[in-house]
Structure formats: structure tokens, C-alpha cells
Amino acid sequence: MLLDAGLIMIADTRTNAGVDDISSFRKLHCLADTEDRVIYAASAGNLSTTQTVISMLREGIPTGEDGAIMRTIAEPTSMFRAAQLVGDAMQLANATVGKALASIKISGTSSLLLGGRIGNAPPALFLIYSAGNFIECKPDMPFFQIGETKYGRPMLDRTIKPSTPLPEAMKIAFLSFDASIRSNLAVGRPLDLMVMPASPTSKVLTRRVGENDPYFNDLSARWGDLLHDAAATIPDPPFMADLMQ
């Protein structure tokens, strides 16, 4: 979520290669945390592809056929240039890992959310697609989703606005993830999160929300009760009265 008050990024940790092969891997990655830049990436899709992209961004993306010059995430002068670099890494991963996977009929597609700030610029958020192209988050749509989106999106569509305060946005984000976790076995805790306030002098908050997190468990239970109570207060469809006679 890219809001007036700052940036929030959250990712779960569950990956699967079938119902009998479920594992836990970090999907929210810190790419840079220095005096002049703090950059995070959230990944979804084929794990080998995304891990290749993340490693190349940290260790270097070769430039030219001889690969003598290596570009890293420490070099871009703006978040737009950083998004371009991530797109280049995605294209290179597709040409290597993706091509190898395609030869054995396995999809290597993946996508990334890139968020952070460089210098004193305001936080920015980009969605990088599998082909390496990308779009930037804007106020008319103040959030992006990748991976499993359908169960958690209604909550975001109904409630998130650019003016939403960060604490409220975090609560809504948890409710969105709770909906996905309840409806899809491919989504699960722990959740990793990052909160970057709009002010460049503010500290960045990071946290892992585990299976026994008291706040998340209380939020989930309260929301279930509230949904039940809210549904009970809505009148039954009038045409159903004929069945009760």
C-alpha cells in the first residue's frame, strides 16, 4: 500500500509445488538498507526465478556480452531507475532459469513488488511483471497485490484510500490476509511486514507475525464474530417468506 502517510509491504511465507509439497520461504526481501536508500521487494510465482532475481540485484547484473560491468541495487539514483534494474534482472532470469523450466514444461513466471525510497524522495511502489515491464502505484489505486489476490482484495477495494492512516491500513491488511489464509491453503503465516513512514527521518518498522501472534489471532476471531453479527442484522430476502408459510 502506498498512502499519504507512507508505505506498507506484507508477504506471507508459504510456497507449494502441489498439495503434498508445501514449504516456508521468505518472500519479503530487504535489497538495500543504507543511509541513502531503503529498498524492499516482495515476490510471488516460481521460487527459483524470484530467488535468481533477488540474488542478481544484490550481487550484480551483467552488462554486455562479456559481463565485465555488474549493476547492483546500490547504484540507481531513483526508485524508477531501480524498477528498471529489477525489470532487467527479471528478463535475464527468464532467459536462463525460465527457459530451462520451460524445456520441462514447468512455468517459471513470477512477479515482484518493489518499494522504498532513495535519498529524501517520498516512498514509491512498483509492480514488476514477469516480462520485466512495470507500472507505478498511484493515488487512484493506492495498493498492489501479487500472488493469491482474489480472497483478500474485496477488503482493500472497500476500505483503502490514500488518506488511510498507517495503523488503520495495517489492520485492514491483516484482515485481507486473514481472508486469504482461511480460503486458500497456499497462503499462510508467518507474515513478514515493512512499514516506511512518509517522512525520510522516520524509522522503518519490520516485523514477523507468527502462528501464535496474539494480535493477529484476536483480530481474526473478532472479525469472524463481527461478520456473523452483521449478517444477522440484515433482513432476510422478502421472497423467502413464502417458503416459511
Give structural notes.
The protein has 245 residues and is of the alpha+beta class. It is 34% helix and 26% strand. It contains five helices and 13 strands. It has helices at 47-59, 79-103, 153-159, 166-183, 214-233, and strands spanning 2-3, 6-11, 14-16, 22-24, 28-33, 37-45, 61-63, 69-71, 110-118, 124-128, 134-136, 191-197, 205-209. The strands form four sheets. It has a five-stranded antiparallel beta sheet, covered by helices on one side. A hairpin with a 3-residue loop joins strand 5 (28-33) and strand 6 (37-45). Helix 1 packs across helix 2 (79-103), helix 3 runs antiparallel to helix 4 (166-183) and helix 4 (166-183) crosses helix 5. 36% of the residues are buried. The mean pLDDT is 94.
Features:
245 residues; alpha+beta; five-stranded antiparallel sheet; 34% helix
Give a concise summary.
The protein is α+β, with helices and mostly antiparallel strands and 245 residues long. It has helices at residues 47-59, 79-103, 153-159, 166-183, 214-233; strands at residues 2-3, 6-11, 14-16, 22-24, 28-33, 37-45, 61-63, 69-71, 110-118, 124-128, 134-136, 191-197, 205-209.
The averaged pLDDT comes out at 94
Rg, Cα atoms, Å: 20 Å
Structural class of the secondary elements? alpha+beta
| Cα-to-Cα separation, first versus last residue | 50 Å
Number of separate helices: 5
Strand content: 25-35%
Taking the sheet with the most strands, its summary is: 5 strands, antiparallel
Q: Quick one: overall form?
A: globular
Low-confidence segments: none
Number of strands: 13
Major sheet strand order:
5-6-9-10-11
Q: What proportion of the residues is helical, as a percent range?
A: 25-40%
The topology string of helices and strands comes to EEEEEEHEEHEEEHHEEH
